[in-house]
Amino acid sequence: MASVTASPTDENTHTAHKRRVNELIFESLAAYPRDGEIAFFCECASETCFETVWLSLDDYETGRINPRWLVIRAGHRRQTAVGERRRPVPA
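The structure assignment produced for this chain is given below.
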């Protein structure tokens, strides 16, 4: 029996939905103090992953400067090889 795997398009959709939720989290908290870390959803390609990645609002905002940057929990995979860092590297 053949196994069924998610297509790249499905993986992109899962990532896009989780990314949008994270953007809404960021937007809803943007006016609040930027101290501490916030739980964002892992944007890996798995449709069953709802794990969190804790980031400060500043780290999230810095990461999003690069449109290919994803919030990825350590050990999870993404659909494209973009790098495997949890926090953005300051410029």
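Interim note for the steering committee: The helical segments are 8-29, 57-63. Residues 67 and 91 are 15 Å apart (CA to CA).
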